[in-house]
Queue: 3 jobs
Job 1
Amino acid sequence: MICVAALIFAAQIPTVFIDPFGATVRWEGWGASLCWMGNPFGERDDVADSLFTTKLAQVGDQVLPGLGMTIVRYNAGACSPNEVDGRRMVLSKNVLPFRQIEGYWLDPAKGESGWDWSRDKAQRAMMLKAKARGANRFELFSNSPMWWMCVNGNPSGAAKATDDNLRPDMYGAFATYLATIAAHSKKHWGVAFTSVEPFNEPASNYWSATGRQEGCHFSPATQAAFLPILRAELDRQGLRRLPIVASDETSFDQALSTWHALGEDAKALISRVNVHGYPHTEGSRAAFAEAIAGKSRWNSEHGDGDATGLSTARELSLDLNVLRASAWCYWQPLDGGGWGLMDSDMVAAKIKQANPKYFVLAHYMRHLRPGMALLSTSDPHVVAAYDARKRKLVIVVENEKEASTKLLDLSAFHIGRRVAKRWITTPKGAERYEKVDDLVFEPGSLKIELPASSVQTFEFPEVTLPKVASRR
């Protein structure tokens, strides 16, 4: 006799469909900006191991699962102490030392001797450590042109935050600065940058002379005017194949506005569109993705102060399922309070403790690896990817709220072994990326229990995509 109550309960369980037939995104990888954290921590091997390998890394008194990042965003600094044409850098009183990034071009009047390639040693050291550990995508980006290229000599921004701060007569110099760093890096450091991004949140209205970091406003018109100059200088220095990406606006809505304002000639020079995730769950990811259809996109900078990582997981799920980003980068893995994956005293150069957020991101970064196909799902809280070479299906589920149950519909896949490996993190509890018992399931579906405030990873071995899907 069939238990009617059991059937009713089963029917009420939300079902998640994993779609192997829809459009997929080839995953490029996970990464971070070195920037501020490079100053105090750039020469530490343990930090490099934790971020750029998947082995266990001893960081202080903690043993951490390496995150396996493969993308490095290297910041071309804007600061120097020297005099240029009788001027010196004007420094905001609110900028802490670790947020002052040393620039390489000290004096344009001195030719090659005006460059000092020994500067910014610590950030460069971390980039080289990342490369030695397998990082394979390197983006050169700028928060501000060199201070002497700025209207007011201040690399934090203009007197009025809505004013552009790159001097009109310095467009060529700024292009030369970026192209020369890229060319020098390839020849002398063994790092061939795979993209260059000249702007950072350029249309935002908070880059002022009293700011707390390097920053520069660029109106969409200025961006459009500068991009062909940069392209020409890259080409002149033998970097014709180095793509330009833009515009790294702070939000999806601002990115959409800038994209519409750039004009077709400028858009044609942009090989990939970068955007930052600071509106978090707000803003129209879908509208932005539709507007730039045909170009790949990265969420090139995410950061938030929630040490649990639950906010990060929720937003990351949206970035993969709605924005359909092909890569995702955290702003500063080492930073103060909940902003860092590791809570760190940046001034004293001391790492305190890994936040739960570190272990939350381990679920995504260690299991969704470069080259995998990012699949579509019917649930915005569920991320799925397929590794064709290893015949492995990966599903990561985040649950911010109370305990619940979901049913993963796996009927579209051919699964040889009906066993799911499983890892769990409960940021408000005790579990930190713990391997737990495998789940054995019947053909077609898997019922999963989701504890309150949790993230879980499920790996399915011996999975083959249907022939229709595999031809896509």
Job 2
Amino acid sequence: MSHKISFGTDGWRGIIAKDFTFDNVRLVARAVAAYINEEAIGERGIVIGRDNRFLAEEFAEAVAEEFNKQGIPVYMCCGATPTPVTAYAIKLHQAAGAVMLTASHNPPPYNGFKFIPETAGPALPHITKKIEENIAKLQAGEPCEGYSLIPAEGRYGALVAEEKPTTGCTMHSPFEEYIEHIATIIDLDTIRQAGLKIVIDPMFGAGIGYLEHILGNAGAELEVFHNHRDPLFGGTLPEPTGKSLEELKQRVTAGKAHLGLALDGDADRFGIIDANGEYITPNQFLPLLYYHLLTVKGWRGPVARTVATTHLLDRMAAKYNQPIYESPVGFKYIGQNLLEKDCILGGEESGGLSIKGHIPEKDGILAGLLAAEMVAQHGKSLTAILESIYQEFGRLFSERLDIHTTPQQKTAILEQLKDFSPTELGGQPVIDKITLDGVKLIVADGAWVLIRASGTEPLFRIYTEANSLEQKVRLQQDVKNKLDLN
């Protein structure tokens, strides 16, 4: 094969049978195995998880076989396993890392290959760069450090650690251990006393059974749907956004439930519907959670957010004299801050979060349980808690616009962005310009606009946060006019 395999913000993804073929998956597995062996940690083994997509089991078998051929033992997760649970299994086994086969919230024809290193958080760019270099060497037939072909033996063909079976693969379900760990983080007793009624939509994905088990055992009255395997995801995307959760909204309001909780295809992102049927955006939920951690749990510590995520977190951190760490888009940078900066919360506007005491990987199951804990402990809806936050810290209005261009337009606008430094925007002076990831302009009253280009499409994303709906529209239109993006 000749085309370049590259790792984006969360791994390599491709269309099944076109790009995501068995040959390519084996190639990437060999490149990851070479990286692990070069780091001299191969004897610790690798965890393999997968979601509910087409041919998931067969792809997982192929990956296991390639690792075993490089002398690396495998912990194969039984059945579909969420990304955060697969990551947690690294800690359970003190493994060298994990491979998660998932395309997350992408359309049904896609699958993906995500490498999670020994930290149990997303791989940082220096790791994925090394894997990409290994792929290129293997494609070209060049020597690749850490790679050597071991003659096949047994089921997978591997030399294995003594405590593992001679087939080279231990079938393992980290379900119970993950649930025991979650019980140390979530106040299940308070949930039990609150008598919550919750509707759950795992969107046919790998998260089926997790929220149901934990909340059911905590005494919540549950209604669950879309809780069987469907590689076509009911003909839609397994992405829990306001647009895709209409049925969950209807079931919550019709059943007079306290909450509706949804998970994406690999359960690392969340969707939350409040008792009134309102979709709670990640930019609303992250401040809710930080407020809860600060005021109810009494935690103190910094918060990490991406450059595209709400500054309401900044206002809270300022009041409690805590640092805030801004990172490029991509949870790998959030995970790094959770590990290195002792943050009590890290999150992004696209629906990923984790907290102190958990793994530095985004976890939709954790998010849903924290939502239930909040409703139980505060004794009121998330919307009502939000109103209290707005009264104390002010309300902000966030939105992302996706604007399609031609490839030629994209090139021209990218060139223009290099020197894009307007002195005013939306009728206010620009007081700061941040080029951490795209171009972010902050105006005098704290409102801001971020312009980011898609890495794969002729597309620009304009993120805006303002103090009123009117200001939000003014800022959006002004940026579009200045960059000729109308």
Job 3
Amino acid sequence: MRTPDQTAPVQAPLLSPRHCCAAWSHAVTTIDESTPPDLSHTALFLRFLRFGLLAFGGPVAQIAMIRRELVEQEGWISGARFNRLLAVLQVLPGPEAHELCVHLGMRAKGRIGGLLAGLGFMTPGLILMLGIGWIYVSLAPFVALLTGAFLGIQAAVVAIIVRAVHKIGAHILEDRWLWAVATVGFAATLYGVAFWIVLLAAGSAYALIAGRRFVLAGVVIAAAATLAVWLHPVVQGALPADTVVTGEVATGTLAMFWTGLKAGLLTFGGAYTAIPYVRADTVGRGLIDDGTFLDGVAFAGVIPAPLVIFCTFVGFVAGGWTGALAMTAGVFLPAFAFSMIFYERLEAIVADPRLHQLLAGVAAAVVGIIAATSLQLGWGTLQRAPSIPAAVAIFIAALAAVWFWKSRYAGPVVLASAGLAGWLVFRAA
């Protein structure tokens, strides 16, 4: 169901929900005798801390690294069981590389081991992003001198998101009905429909259509459309576009945690799917602007960490240290919880084909939501750029590079090049 943010060789297949059961049928039926080595809790934490320090290149590169060392070299788990585990995690929200670490840590030292493994994997990126957020806010006058560079980077980030939409859609939009769901999700997002209405209607309607219950699906769609139209004036009027929200209610710890938790629970299709939800709760409420938001996504793409670590940066800019930690806790909590609490029961639940159809519809709607968000972000970038032709040229060049260059280093190199181009071009504009 998910697709990675970067393309790199990996032996574990990337599957859509409807294919998960087929993948499981290839799993070995004999007892898995592969076991992790007997490590102390400290050694286990340090083992996964090393993975965190080397977690460049997006989830495919991260998963390939974990598989190479823990499956092929050290035999923590058999290859067949690893593939089955990955298939389960791809159906669930959250960064799958982090969830793999939590599960493998549990396999070694129980739930405490899972907690330590997950913390070890995320710690390097968290520390780096907290430092970046502090520099960005505390040294704002210096950052302002690099406005041209950041504008170039923002144009490249939009290109990377557009490429992600294509890759995610290629794995998810498997029939004409899913294409229709994605199209409706795109239009509804541009209209301003609340994302929860889109997701609930999309999942329910597609599951009903797959079961050939077309009349009931039509009723669901009509009810969702009526609710969206009825709530539209309320949603649009709740916060005027030029309103900047401040204060404890908007930027408090609980609000930041809730924003992160929604992102962590709704990241179907990879970390890029968290972007619309976090943007709606921060940019949509005037806590930060689109340019700053895109800067956070860019920083997350060049440090060793799951891409959702951009939430740490957004939380820092919007709510300081407590905001950053609260949003980080929210976005990573599901990744810990699913493996540490529910994994023993997940296989039976995820094997239900009705759940596959529901999640397929949700995922298709998410593709449309991200596509609409990328259009909104691109339009905002053009409005900030001193030269629209230069911004478009950077976008096109970046899109071509990430489209055809299949390397874990493509993202960082493209962002750095776009920053240099923006600094040279927009400084003179």
